[in-house]
Amino acid sequence: MHTPIAPVREPLIEGGKTYHDISEDLCGPTEKAPSLSWIIAFMVSGAVMTFGFFSIAWTIWFGIGSWNLNRTIGWGYDITNFVWWIGIGHAGTLISAILLLFRQKWRTGVNRAAEAMTIFAVMCAGLFPAIHTGRPWFDFFMFPYPNTRGPLWVNFNSPLLWDIFAISTYFTVSLLFWYTGLVPDFATVRDRASGFRKKMYNLLSFGWTGSAKHWQRWESLSLILAGLATPLVLSVHTIVSFDFATSVIPGWHTTIFPPYFVAGAIFSGFAMVQTLMLITRKLLKLEQYITINHIESMNKVILLTGTIVGVAYLTELFIAWYSGYIYEQFAFFNRAFGIYWWSYFGMMACNVLSPQIFWFKKIRRSIFWTFLMSIFVNIGMWFERFVIIATTLARDYLPSSWSYYTPTWVEIGIYVGSIGLFFTLYLLFTRVAPVVAIAEVKHILKTAGDQYIGSKAKGGHNKEETVQESAH
Amino acid sequence: MKQPSKEIWISAQDLRNDPEVLEAAHREFPEESLLETLSGDGAMERVESSRRDFLKFLGFSLGAATVAASCEIPVKKAIPYVIKPDAIVPGVATYYASAWVDGGDVVPVLVKTREGRPIKVEGNALAPLTRGGTNARSQASVLSLYDTNRLQDAGRVQEGKVAYASWDELDKEVGQALAAATSIRLVSRTVASPTARAAIQAFVNARPGAAWIQYDPVSASGLLDAQEMCFGKRVLPSYHFDKAKVIVSFGADFLGTWISPVEYARDYAAGRRITDTANPAMSRHYQVESYMSLTGSNADHRILIKPSEQGAAIATLYNAIARARGLAAITAPSVNDRAAQALSRVAEELLAANGMALVVSDANNPAEQALIARMNEALGAHDTTITFSDYSLQRQGSDRAMKSLVDDMQSGKVDALVVLDGNPVFDAAFGKSFAEGMQKVKTRVSCSLTLDETAALCQWVAPASHGLESWGDAQPKADQVYLMQPTIAPLFKTRQWEESLLVWVGSDQWDRTAEQPYYEFLKKYWQEQLFPAQSKFASFTAFWESSLHDGLLALSAAGAAPTCQMDVTTLAGQISKPGTGEELICFETVNMGAGQFAGNPWLQEMPDPVTRCVWGNYLFVPIGWDGGNAYTMFKGLQDGDKVLLTANGIEREVTIVHQFGLAEGTYALALGYGREVVGTTGLQVGTDTRGWTHISGEGYSRSFVSEVQVSGKSGRDKEFACVQHHHTMGVKGQEKNGETINVDEKTVATIGEGYQGSLVDRSIIFQGTLEEVKGLETRIREKRTAFQSLNEKTLYPDYSDIYQLGHHWGMHIDLSACIGCGACTVACMAENNVPVVGKKEVFRHHEMTWLRIDRYFYGDLENPNVVYQPMLCQHCDNAPCENVCPVSATNHSSEGLNQMAYNRCIGTRYCANNCPYKVRRFNWLDYTKADIFPVNEPRLGQEELPFGADNLTRMVLNPDVTVRSRGVMEKCSFCVQRIQEGKLTAKKEGRPLRDGDVKSACMTACPTGAITFGDLNDKEGRLHSELESPLVYQVLEEVNTRPSVNYRAKVLNRHASLES
Q1: pLDDT digit string (tens) for B15-41?
Q2: Euclidean distance between CA atoms B595 and B426, whole angstroms
Q3: For a surface tag, which of A1, A122, B169, B920 has the fewest beta carbons within 10 Å of its beta carbon?
């Protein structure tokens, strides 16, 4: 069997892995006792998450008045965090769905973790709309359920309602997609396990036997879900952007928001993937599966989307000037030169200027710079949402109502707590499921393994036979 | 086949005598039991619990439920009327004509009662004094009635605390003490009631050696004494601001606090209303003052002087007029050059006004007031803008009498002191020496409603009833008497002080057996004194009933104006000399008075119209511009920083606020704050000014002080509560290159020129001057045409034809008529159960006011003009808030109302974000104690219960308006409860709703008639005619929200030659 080999591409799996090596390396973390670094990380993130839940309980008990929002600025940290997390949750589906359709093989190294990240990020995001209401115990009013109040229906004109549909759909499809990918891998773990673990993984793998029919159905389902998920990548943040775009507030009311938000979401999503991957590959010793090539590819996406976002920022400024509408003009003038100027320049520096260093290959392939940039982008994208939400509201139509906003400890607590929740879930995930898709990596081994392609490739049938033997 | 055994059968089996059927016939229930059916084969046999177990479970469940249910659940009793009082129909409001009286301040009102509770006051439209106008203080009076800090019974005061005794005990002991006393002094603020004066007279007549002293916390003694010197009678003339073409006020805050502001405000607005834009005419108003007062903020021109220069300024104007009229000039110190120049122009205008001129002053100096009186006479103001026959009795206090009282007390000549009304230890400039003198008086009694600084130094408190519980009358003007009637029985064991006086003296006019003795006394007085003075009614009963119904009696007053009897030039020596160093002026605010309203949370939380600050008094310090991107702050301080202020040897810490329009070297601070004995709400809120206000060498109280030192930052008010943080809309200054720019727009930016035009080009405020009113008209028309043509280009269907059916509620607000007094904001709080949130929450911008009055400075940076803009829900027909609510909690009615369904609201706050007018108010915390979580209420002051949480204060709630719980959004409803009431009344009477049937609370409260509420579809209505003015615009019309509230542009009558 000779699969086409493109020697120009760098190998995506290094270290001359056999199929057995792959199973060993990737199932390993779920089978061994957790390392000390995992335990420390878990305790820290668990503690932070607990503080977050305490802050949420505080909010529900005392009311939104425990936050520093005011009559002018009705949304602050809450919706900023919501949009930020939703944005982060974009990379996973993009990698798994769109790159699958485009047959990008490098996705296999990172798609599992990225999808997990998506799901956890959407969970963190969903938290904020739920608790930001004045009477969260009545949140169910937002769902169109049959009732005896008339029946009293929800307002289908409201973008907040669209959000509910968009996010719940996105979450459902992402979860299904992620789980579908996990089924054969759970089976692999099951086959290596015994006792109770075997039972549990058997349940989780839905009795996967690895028959050709299973594989065929699995491939079809993956493709269908990829097809379903692809428009969602674009739609979710589009709809989130409608929260602002359909309003009448200058600085929110802009038609550029949907593409701009989507690009920003992918941008921040990839940055978060980078942050997580760089840590994961180090801790779980997966450098040979998540290679510098993967990192470089993602850096290219970051450079592209960061530049798109930069163009959007400049377009906004141009349109504000070109519109001749003083409220719009003032809104953007104020963003740059008003009281919150620091957040605007923080955003510009982190999101537009700094990613430009990725034009240099050396930096694209540098772990240090990549990690630093991923943090920068995450900060920058948080600032972007803060700039859009808080600065815009702080200086709207009537100068008499202008005000300023700084968060209370409760708001910061919930934000930090959501990060704690995210990492707690992610850490649990690394203990339960293979963080790299075993089946998919094995699938590309012969076309992307360094023993087959690249400068160090050994090639030849002998090697291939050894590999096949070890696969059992 | 067997023989059939029966003649009737129900089935073939039955006919056959099938054994199964036979067996079934013996069983009561033909099928197997339901339980057996459900539990399947033999399941019942395996059930271990028996019938006994079932009973056990039942017993346990019942017991558990009983224990759980017996946990303390508040029992609320609703008791129906067994015998329904005649006048009360549950659910229907009853109105009584009465009057709100506070010292010499009188506002004729209608008191709205529900189920016997007074819950709101409205102006009495029949009253010639106010024509239905009110002020914030009278609107807030219902809350003082339900003040938890009121004294509840007669009592002894021991070490500043009240130990309740009984009235019998008090009457016995106080009666004996007064009988034994040889020198009794009764002290009160101005008593406007003729009947009360008769009661006092009865007391004084019966007790030789007794004397009655009236004082006014903010004294008009100098004015009264000057009137006496010039015209021989110690009364105030009536001023007619509507007739004046040129008004000059030296420091008199006649729209806010001076003498009779509600009356003056109405007249003032009438004289400035532009009815015909083709031939516009309005009065011109000059305010000569040292800080931005409410009146000054409405003036066309302000001439800045230091407080101590006021005498010099008056003399300067007098001399200019005297020269022109051939009178002798007076030698007086000179005023600063800029003011002198301006005053010479003012004099020309006054002279040219042809008698239609009016000069007033708040100077408490008889010499200066005599100059004013002489000036007015020389200008021909008598019988045009000033009349004497209908003289005013609103101020009668005498500083000289007060001074001699204090001297007598200090020298031990007084052995009994009865404080009938007022709190002289705190609110009089004599306070400190008054308190010292009180120690030497043997018997001391206070009739205060609450324990105050004066009552705390007395031995006895004989608490008076609240005005809403009392009979009485008030005669603010010689030709107008208003009746006060109780609208509720006294809530506590209190007694009006008039009654107490008559009891103590054992007057023969006192009918102890009567059910309401003072009512009999009052009626008798009216029968004997007032009934003969009128000719309309032949029988006293008809006269009395008519007066009681209307709440007023109009008398005739006629007579020519007197002429000045004295040579005012001899008073030259008494004109105050300009002081040295920096100066402090203490002034009265519209909400706090001289401190008598410190215990009223509505007034504490009503933003001061000029500073927009609440819960405290803040030292006005100057603000300038550094020529760059920042204002120059006083000593580099921020608003809310504290400084130490030293004057008259007294040092106190005071919080600052930067304020435009201060005279150089002047600071200003409001009176009435820093109370030390005042229940809990107003306790130590703000800074006391006692000692800074002092007695001048001539024996008159003086509200300014020279040689003031202000330190650098000494601390920070961590809860600096101000509801507006951006104050300007185009204040202009000159850059170094001589170019005039909008300074505020430059300072909004951190670098560069700022975005010039970003504020002034917004369609929020339209303003102009009388001279260029045509240009203003064109500007409004052009802008509106452009906006409307854009708004028509929409993809959405136009629903305006639907709104043209039935009612479509709308409003018109005339910015030229709005003086910013804040009566509407308090009326709105009272009408709509708007919660009070306290200082800290206002600091966090969590104020709940549905109607606020935005205040913008514009024009010259150093001496700007002011526009007030009442801002409330605009009830947009294309409302941005409505379409974003995910649960449709806010929606549009068929009558154009933007309505809130509080029960449906989950509090996403999206609507508030999307409201361009920022009028939506969110219940951030449990402000009303309506929450399920009891720990969660912000506290006011040091009260044990949060404000409004006790049953007494809750009596003030309007039962027609829902009390909102935490987590829901609320906002102006256009007083939908009043609309419904009006519609129901019309329906019951079988007629269409008429224009004026429905008036919003803000409209009825407004003293100047700036607010008109009505039906936009009523082409005959007053609203429709108001909207025909070409100066009408809508705020942010280009946003296409289609608001129902319309504003009329602000027009000032500025003098071109005074533009600097």
Answers
A1: 777 787 777 777 666 555 555 555 555
A2: 8
A3: A1
Write out pLDDT tens, residues A148-187: 877 788 999 999 999 999 999 999 999 998 999 899 999 9
Q: What residues of B are in contact with residue A148 (Cβ under 8 Å)?
A: none
Domain boundaries, chain A: 51-135+156-284+291-414
CB-closest option in B748, B905, B925 to A62: B925
* CA quadruple A449, A453, A454, A455: dihedral sign: positive
Contact A83/A240 with Cβ under 8 angstroms?
Answer: yes
Domain B155-215+398-477+480-534 belongs to what topology?
Rossmann fold (3.40.50)
Using the beta-carbon criterion (under 8 Å), do A337 and B750 form an inter-chain contact? yes
> Rounded to two decimals, what is the model's pTM?
0.88
Rounded to a whole number of angstroms, the distance from the CA of B727 to the nearest CA of chain A is 7
Contact criterion met (CB < 8 Å) for B909 and A74? yes
Q: Among candidates B624, B581, B611, which has minimal Cα distance to B686?
A: B611
Mutate to test the interface with A, among B866, B913, B935 (most CBs of A within 10 A): B913
Helix pair A292-323, A367-386: axis angle to 10 deg: 30
A63·B926 Cβ contact <8 A: yes
Nearest CA in chain A to B935: A62
CB B175 within 8 A of CB B504: yes
State chain A's mean pLDDT as an integer. 87
- Would the CB atoms of A155 and B921 count as touching at under 8 Å? no
Beta strand spans in B85-146 (E): 94-102, 105-114, 117-123
- For B799-854, the pLDDT digits (tens) are 778 888 889 999 999 999 999 999 999 999 999 999 999 888 999 999 999 999 99
Residue B481 has pLDDT above 90, yes or no: yes
User: Closest to B755 (Cβ–Cβ): which among A160, A246, A333?
Assistant: A333
The average pLDDT across B739-765 equals 87
Q: How far apart are CA B847 and CA B923, in angstroms?
A: 9
CB contact under 8 A, B855 and A400: yes
Question: What's the average model confidence in pLDDT over B754-775?
Answer: 89
Whole-number average pLDDT of chain B: 88
Question: Judging by beta carbons within 10 Å of its beta carbon (0-12, 13-18, 19+), is residue B77 exposed, middle or buried?
Answer: exposed
Residue B979 host element (H or E) = helix B976-988
The interface predicted TM-score (ipTM) is 0.90
The Cα–Cα gap between B869 and B818 comes to 8
| CATH class held by domain B572-729 | mainly beta
B609 pLDDT exceeds 80?
yes
A337 contact residues in B (CB cutoff 8 A): 749-752, 754
CATH number of B222-392: 3.40.228.10
In chain A, the residue whose alpha carbon lies closest to the alpha carbon of B787 is: A325
Nearest CA in chain B to A140: B906
Per-residue pLDDT tens over the stretch B542-591: 999 999 999 999 888 878 888 887 888 888 888 888 888 999 999 999 99
Q: What is the mean pLDDT of residues B948-967?
A: 87
Q: How far apart are CA B851 and CA B842, in angstroms?
A: 15
Dist. CA B50–CA B292, nearest whole Å: 88
Homologous superfamily (CATH) for A51-135+156-284+291-414: Formate dehydrogenase/DMSO reductase domain (1.20.1630.10)
Q: Are B816 and B810 in contact (CB under 8 A)?
A: no
What was the pLDDT predicted at B944? 60
User: Whole-angstrom distance between the N-terminal and C-terminal Cα of chain B?
Assistant: 130
B chain contacts of residue A139, beta-carbon cutoff 8 Å:
906
| pLDDT > 90? residue B142 | yes
Separation CA B791–CA B430 (nearest Å):
63
Strands B641-647, B701-702: pairing is: unpaired
